[in-house]
Amino acid sequence: KSHLGAERIGDVMEVYGPLIEMALGPQVGTFVTGTGEHGLLSDLCGLVVSWGLSFCLAVLFYHGASVLISAYTQRYHPNAPCNKVSPKLQEYMVKVSHRAFPLYVTVVSFGEVFRKLGWSRHCESIEDCGGWAGTALNCIAYFLCVELLIFLDHYYLLHKFEWGKRVMKHSEHHVYKKADELNAWSAYAFAPQDGWSQGLPLALVTCVVRVPLPFVFFMEAATAVWTLYIHTDVRPLPWPFMGCNYHYLHHKYNWYNFGFMTCLFDTLFGTIKHPAPSDYSHMPAKSQ
C-alpha cells in the first residue's frame, strides 16, 4: 500500500470520482482516479486526472465569470473604465492567463498530496475540529495566516527583493497600470510562477491550522472570485476590505496595498494607502 493511497477521506476526487467510476467501471475507475488501493502508479494517475479536471474547471470559470462580470459592468456601470479595455489588450490578457493556468491549479494538487501524506491537519467534522467555537476560531486563524503569507509574498518576494522581482516576474502583471487597462480578464494575467506563489498559502496553511476541508474549498473558490473583483473597478469597499479601489492604487503606483482581501497587514506594516477622490475619480458615481 502506498503512502499516497493511505488517505482518501476529504480528497477532491471524492466530488467527481464516482462519476468516473460509473463511466469506466469500479476497478478501472478507482485506478484512474487514485481512490483505490492500487499502488503508486494509480496514485500518480489520480493526481494527473485531478490536475486535468482542475485545469478545465479553472479555464471554464475564468471565461464564464469574466463574461458575466463584463456583462454586469456594461449594463450597470457603462462608463466604468473596465469597459474601455481595448480588445487587443484583452486578447493578450487571456493568452497570458491560459499560459499560467497549468501551474496555478497545482495548488489544488499540493493540497491533495498534503492530505494523502497525512501532512494536512484538516478535520472531517465540526466535532473533530473542537466544536463550533473551536472551528470558528481555527477558520479565522486559517484566513489570517493565508492573508499574512500572501502579503509577505506580495510585498517582499514580488516587490521588494531584487532576485524575487527578477525570478517571479511580477512586473508582467503590473503592465496594467491605468484604469482602462484593468478588468476581470486581467485578474489572472500573471507569470505562472507569480500567481502560483500567491495561491500556494491556501495549501500550506492546512499543514499548520486545523480546519474543515469544506472551508479550504470555500477559501479556494473565494480567492478565485475575489481576484476577479479587485481587478474590476466597480463597487469599491471601505477599510478594512481590500476592495477594487484599494487594489487599483496598487497598480497605479506599483506600491502600497499589498494585502489580498483585507488591509490589515498593510496597516500594520505601514504600506496602506487609502483612496482619495483624486485617485479613483475615474469611478462612476453609482459605484462609490
Automatic annotation (TrEMBL):
Source domain of life: Eukaryota
Compartment(s): Membrane
Keywords: Membrane, Transmembrane, Transmembrane helix
Transmembrane segments: 44-65, 140-158
GO terms for cellular component: membrane
Chain ranges of the Fatty acid hydroxylase domain: 140-271
A GO term, aspect molecular function: oxidoreductase activity
An example Gene Ontology biological process: lipid biosynthetic process
Family annotation (PANTHER family): STEROL DESATURASE
Name listed for the protein in its UniProt record: Fatty acid hydroxylase domain-containing protein
